[in-house]
Every structure is written in structure tokens, then in C-alpha cells.
Design brief:
Elements (H helix, E strand, L loop, with lengths): L5 E11 L5 E12 L4 E5 L6 H9 L6 E6 L2 E2 L7 E4 L11 H12 L5 H14 L15 H14 L4 E5 L7 H18 L2 E5 L3 H7 L2 E5 L7 E6 L8 H4 L5 H23 L10 E2 L19 E3 L7 E3 L8
Parallel strand pairs: 3-8, 3-9, 6-7, 7-8, 10-11
Antiparallel strand pairs: 1-2, 1-4, 4-5, 9-10, 12-13
Helix pairs in contact: 2-3, 2-4, 3-4
The chain binds adenosine-5'-triphosphate and magnesium ion.
């Protein structure tokens, strides 16, 4: 059984409507993640992805249900869970180093200045910002600001990274570079990641699993798509994998058509506690024979012929 490092247990979130009543963004959502897993969530705008992420971060509380992290229910924000927002949310009056060092000092209150500076520098180097330490956010490009956000999140060495469309505002080249860096860093540190994206290729490149969310209100987790790509993957080879297009088409087909019709089609048979796990392009897992079990005779019957028996003791086996 998969270890439940993060366990989302029946969470709901609703908001009061201006004229009375309430809008339910989602209701009874269940999802678990193992330690070191990289999970991407995909779904249409407004379905509730950021709401889920904010609840995981402890920045928002569910109307019902709970989130358990490492055996403990979360009750608010924690330095164990770092968030990378789409908008960089840097302190404008602090330099690159100042922004990262500030996060480090809030994690390690007993550290001296030199130790904080050395630790911050390590993460500034890691995201490729060596040389830009003394610049303030206003002097940085969008990609550089996002790197500071990533360095700041990593520098507190969180148990979990929560990323809300971290690369969506960047140009394609910068996005690719930062995706590579995040992949490398997460693989090296064994980071557990929950990331929201609208980019199917980004999800396939980065994730171990892709969670597909239906349209809201009343969104559900329709499927968990297991990524068949090996964990060791290179950007240049991703599209050459024999199952790449099966996975990509499956996700795109969901976004284009099934995200709207999923609830009507599955109806009462949908069980939010057991979200179907999909392996596009792969056959259903074979039933493995149970050792010591009675071996059944296989009977082939061809039209117009006598029965041909295949099995231990049959003519075919002599
Ligand atoms: N404070 C709020 N009051 C009322 N409704 C809200 C509030 N915050 C979010 N919502 C509603 O909850 C729903 C989910 O919002 P959320 O931001 O989680 O969507 P999302 O999936 O992240 O969308 P996007 O892809 O556009 O970022 C939306 O319909 C939104 O209007
Ligand atoms: Mg959002």
C-alpha cells in the first residue's frame, strides 16, 4: 500500500452567495500522496485547484474534512510547507539575498548572520542567480523573480512544496530552464510536490501522477493518471517515449470534453474515496496466478468442432 504522507480526507469548500445560499466549489475530495511524489493537478479555470492548494498550505480552511500531513492534521501555515505563488510575492525593499535570507532566518531563529548568509547563498547558486545577490526585485526579470521565489521556498527545506502555476507567466525558454531546474532539485532532494498547471506537457515532464479535476462548481477528482515515463527523463526524449502520446491525448481529451460531462456520465458509480487510477496506453494489469491455487482447465470451443481441451493432462500437453 502507498504510504500516505499527505492525506486529503473528504475536504469541502463552499462560499456564501451574495443573494443567500452557498456555492460549493468542491465537496468530499479525497487524495493521498506518498513522500517524494510529484503530483500535478490539471483542470479548467475556476474548478478549485488554488483552493485545494491553499488548504494544503494552511492558508485556507476546508468547510468540512481534514488534511493530514505526516500523521498530523494541518491547522495553519507551516514552514514545513512552502508555497510558490504565480505572482512572485517578494519583499520589494529587500535584495535577492535579503529575500532568501529572511526566509532562512524565520526557519532557523538561532542561526547567526554568517550561517544564514551561507545557507541563502547555497540556494541562490542552486537556481542560477549567482551574481544577482544584491539586486532588488524591481531590477529583476520575471524569470529571475520566479527563481528567487523558488530559492526562497527551497531554502527553508520544507517537507512539501506547493506550487501554483509557477511558470505560467514566463516566456517558453525561461519556463523550460526553470522546469529543468525544479526537476533536478526535486529529484536530488526527494521533495514532495503538489503543483498546479494548465500545461499538459509540463505536467508530463515533471509529474509522477497527474490529477484531473472536473469543472466546477461541485468539482471532483475524476482520475489520477500515472505517468509511464521513467523517473529519469530528459526533456529532449520525453516525446519519444512510446506512451507519451497516449498519456498526452488522454489528458487533453479530458480537458476538451470529459471534464464537463464526467459527473453526468459516471453518476452514482463515482466513488470520491477511490479515484480511478489510469494508465493510458497500457493494458489492464494481468491477473497473476496465485501459487498453489487449483489450475483450471482452459476450454477452447471452435464452432463446428469437438471440444479441444488445453491444460495439464490434455492432448496438447502430452
Ligand atoms: N473568496 C472567495 N469568495 C467567493 N468565491 C471564491 C473565493 N475564492 C475563490 N472563489 C471561487 O472558488 C472557485 C475556485 O477558485 P480557485 O481559485 O480555486 O480556482 P482555480 O481552479 O485555481 O482557477 P484558475 O485556474 O483560474 O486559477 C471559483 O469559482 C472562484 O470564483
Ligand atoms: Mg488558481
Amino acid at each position: 500500500m502507498t504510504e500516505k504522507f499527505i492525506s486529503i480526507e473528504g475536504i469541502a469548500r463552499s462560499y456564501p452567495k451574495p443573494g443567500g445560499g452557498a456555492t460549493t466549489v468542491f465537496d468530499d475530495l479525497w487524495l493521498s500522496m506518498a513522500r517524494g511524489e510529484f503530483v500535478c493537478a490539471i483542470g479548467h479555470s475556476g474548478c478549485g485547484k488554488t483552493t485545494v492548494l491553499n488548504i494544503l498550505a494552511g492558508l485556507d480552511a476546508p468547510s468540512a474534512g481534514a488534511v493530514i500531513v505526516d500523521g498530523k492534521e494541518i491547522e495553519g501555515p507551516s514552514l514545513d510547507r512552502a508555497v510558490i505563488f504565480q505572482s512572485h510575492a517578494l519583499l520589494p525593499w529587500r535584495t535577492v539575498k535579503g529575500n532568501v535570507a529572511y526566509a532562512v532566518s524565520s526557519r532557523h531563529r538561532d542561526w547567526g548572520k554568517a550561517q544564514i548568509a551561507a545557507h541563502a547563498q547555497k540556494f541562490i547558486d542552486l537556481v542560477g542567480l549567482t551574481g544577482a545577490e544584491t539586486k532588488r526585485p524591481a531590477e529583476l526579470s520575471g524569470g529571475m523573480k520566479q527563481r528567487v521565489g523558488i530559492a526562497r521556498a527551497l531554502s527553508i527545506e520544507p517537507k512539501i512544496m506547493l506550487m501554483d502555476e509557477p511558470f505560467s507567466a514566463l516566456d517558453a525558454l525561461t519556463r523550460g530552464t526553470l522546469q529543468d531546474e525544479v526537476r533536478r532539485i526535486c529529484a536530488t532532494t526527494g521533495q514532495t510536490v503538489f503543483m498546479i498547471t494548465h500545461d499538459v506537457d509540463e505536467a508530463i515532464y515533471l509529474a509522477d501522477k497527474v490529477v484531473l479535476m472536473t469543472n466546477g462548481p461541485g468539482a471532483v477528482l475524476a482520475e489520477i493518471v500515472e505517468n509511464p515515463l521513467p523517473r529519469e527523463r530528459a526533456r529532449a526524449d520525453v516525446h519519444k517515449h512510446p506512451l507519451y502520446y497516449a498519456v498526452r491525448n488522454h489528458i487533453i481529451d479530458f480537458l476538451v470534453s470529459r471534464s464537463k460531462s464526467f459527473i453526468a456520465e459516471t453518476g452514482a458509480s463515482y466513488d470520491p474515496r477511490h479515484v480511478p487510477i489510469m494508465r493510458p496506453g497500457l493494458p489492464e494489469p494481468a491477473v497473476t496466478p496465485v501459487p498453489g491455487a487449483v489450475q483450471h482447465e482452459v476450454v477452447h470451443r471452435r464452432p463446428g468442432t469437438a471440444t479441444v481441451r488445453d491444460g495439464p493432462g490434455s492432448a496438447a500437453h502430452r
